[in-house]
């Protein structure tokens, strides 16, 4: 009996995981202590990343290629950007030159 329950649970988990990979995906990056965490994030195309500013100061999330920019993200604010193309997208905070991160988007 326990064996059948285990198979069922594993099956449900597999369905949940598969469903997620075909649906809208989301990921998040924390901004805290003047750093992006994780500094490097790997996602699949179509993923929306939500940056959450947990600092008590404003930051920006600015793509180094100039095609995307959050503008000012206030303390406790957030910014979202969807990545539709594969590639490596480096970004920084335009207020604090030590703050850098990258998004690696795979097909
Ligand atoms: Cu900053």
Task: Please describe the structure with a list of short key phrases separated by commas or semicolons.
copper ion binding; metal-binding; EfeO_Cupredoxin; Immunoglobulin-like; alpha/beta; single chain; electron transfer activity; 107 residues; four-stranded mixed sheet; binds copper (II) ion
Strand content: 35-45%
CATH third-level topology: Immunoglobulin-like
- Supply the number of structural domains: 1
H/E element sequence: HEEEEEEEE
3D shape: globular
Q: What's the CATH C level?
A: Mainly Beta
- The CATH architecture can be given as Sandwich
DSSP summary: helix tally = 1
Q: Which cofactor or ligand species appear?
A: copper (II) ion
> How is the main sheet built?
4 strands, mixed
Strand arrangement within the widest β-sheet reads 2-1-4-6
User: Which class do the helix and strand fractions yield?
Assistant: alpha/beta
The tally of beta strands, per DSSP, is 8
Tell me roughly what share of residues is in helical segments.
Answer: 10-25%
Task: Report the mean per-residue pLDDT as an integer.
Answer: 87
Subcellular location: Periplasm
Cofactor: Cu cation
Keywords: Copper, Electron transport, Metal-binding, Periplasm, Signal, Transport
Organism: Tolumonas osonensis
Describe the structure.
- The protein is α/β, with parallel strands linked by helices and 107 residues long.
- The strands form 2 sheets. Strands 2-1-4-6 form a 4-stranded mixed β-sheet.
- It has a single domain (25-106), classed as Cupredoxins -  blue copper proteins (Immunoglobulin-like, Sandwich).
- The longest helix has 21 residues, at 2-22.
- The protein has one helix at 2-22, and strands spanning 25-32, 35-37, 40-44, 47-53, 62-63, 78-83, 87-92, 100-106.
- The protein starts with a helix and ends with a strand.
- Strand 1 (25-32) and strand 2 (35-37) form a beta hairpin.
- Residues 59, 93, 95-96, 99 line the site of copper (II) ion.
């Amino acid at each position: 009996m326990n064996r059948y329950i285990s198979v069922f649970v594993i099956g449900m988990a597999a369905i949940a995981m598969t469903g997620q990979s075909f649906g809208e995906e989301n990921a998040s990056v924390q901004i805290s202590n003047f750093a992006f965490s994780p500094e490097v994030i790997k996602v699949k195309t179509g993923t929306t990343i939500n940056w959450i500013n947990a600092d008590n100061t404003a930051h920006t999330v600015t793509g180094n290629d100039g095609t995307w920019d959050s503008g000012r993200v206030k303390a406790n604010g957030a910014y979202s950007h969807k990545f539709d193309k594969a590639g490596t997208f480096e970004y920084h905070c335009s207020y604090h030159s030590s703050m850098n991160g990258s998004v690696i988007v795979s097909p």
